[in-house]
Amino acid sequence: MTYTLSGIAQYEENIKKSRFLALAASVASAEEALAFFSEHHVPDATHNCWAYRIGQEYRFNDDGEPGGTAGRPILQAIEGQQCDRVAVLVIRWFGGIKLGSGGLVRAYGGVAAQCLRLAEKVEIVEEATLECSCAYPDVALLQSRFAMHSVRVLEESFDAEGANWVLAVPKAQAAEVAAMVIDLTRGRARCSVQQPSQHGPSPCRVP
Q1: 108 and 130, same domain (yes or no)
Q2: Rounded to whole angstroms, how far apart are CA atoms 166 and 152?
Q3: What pTM was computed for the model?
Q4: Which end of the chain has the smaller Cβ count within 10 Å, N or C?
Q5: Which one, of 118, 114, 56, 46, lies nearest residue 85 by Cα?
Q6: What angle do CA 52, 58, 64 make, to 5 degrees?
Q7: Of 23-27, 57-61, 192-196, which range is least confident?
Q8: What are the pLDDT digits (tens) for 61-70?
Q9: Is 49 in contact with 70 (CB distance < 8 Å)?
C-alpha cells in the first residue's frame, strides 16, 4: 500500500545548533510540487532542500549542500514511509557547527521521515474505469448502490434511453461492480471495464 497526505504537515528539530524545518504536502503533478516549494521557500534560510515523488516521476535538490546529503535522503524518507504523490521541503538555518556528510544525511532524512511519520495520511487506491448505461427505471436503484461499493461518478449524461456514466471504482472490485450492475437490472443495463483507469489512483482516508 502507498499513501499520500490529507494536508500540509510540519515538523521542526534543532540538530547541533542548526534549525531544520520540514514541510510536506500532497501533490498531483511536478508543477504542483515546484509551486509548493516556491511558496514555502525561505529566502534568508541557509538551504531550502527538497524532493518529490509522483508515481515513477521524482526529483530532488540539495540547494548548496554537498551532493547526495540532502535531497536524496529526503526522497528516501518519502519512499521509506511508503508515500507517493508527496513533496517534502526541508529548510535549514545553519547554526555554526558543521555536521559532516553523514550527519547531513541523517539530519535531512530523519527530519523528513519524522514529518511524514506524524502526518495524517490517506491510502492511495488504484482504480479502474467503468462505462455503464441503463434505462431510467433503473437509475435510482443503481445510484443507491454506488456508495456501498466506493464508486465515484466521473461523468454523467442523460439521453432519450436513460443514463450514461463513466465510473471510477477500486480496481480489485471492478469486475464485481460491473456484474452487480448487470444483475440488478436483470441484464437490461450495459457495463464494461476500461483498463487502465485514465483518472489515476484515488486517495482513501486511513482510519
Answers
A1: no
A2: 9
A3: 0.71
A4: C
A5: 56
A6: 65
A7: 192-196
A8: 999 999 999 9
A9: yes
Decide if 27 contacts 36 (C-beta within 8 A): yes
Domain span at residue 53 reads 2-123
Q: What is the pLDDT of residues 93-144, one digit of tens each?
A: 999 999 999 999 999 999 999 999 999 999 888 888 999 999 999 999 999 9
Nearest C-alpha neighbor of 113 from the set 44, 24, 45, 187:
24
Alpha helix segments (H runs only) across 47-120: 71-80, 100-118
Q: Which residue in the block uniquely carries the three cell numbers 477500486?
A: 170
For residues 207 and 203, what is the distance between their CA atoms, to the nearest angstrom?
12
Who's near 5: CB < 8 A, 6+ residues apart?
24, 25, 26, 83, 86, 116, 119, 120, 121, 122
199 pLDDT band (50/70/90 cuts)? very low
- Claim to verify: residue 142 and residue 73 sit in the same structural domain: no
